[in-house]
User: What shape does this take?
Amino acid sequence: MINVDNLDPEADRAKYALALAEALEGNEENTVGPTDRDIIVTAVRAYSALIDAGLA
Assistant: This one.
């Protein structure tokens, strides 16, 4: 599991997003701050677009 606390969300957004997903999936207690919220919103919107396009 990637430790989200050791990553820079601006320098490596993809790895940070994956670490955030793993932390959320692991049922860990999380506090979602503004940076995390922005990444989650972007990811969910992108996933929604993939579903609409029949790619997910």
Q: What stands out?
A: The CA atoms of residues 25 and 37 lie 15 Å apart. Helices lie at 13-25, 34-52. The chain has a mean pLDDT of 85. The chain has two helices and no strands.
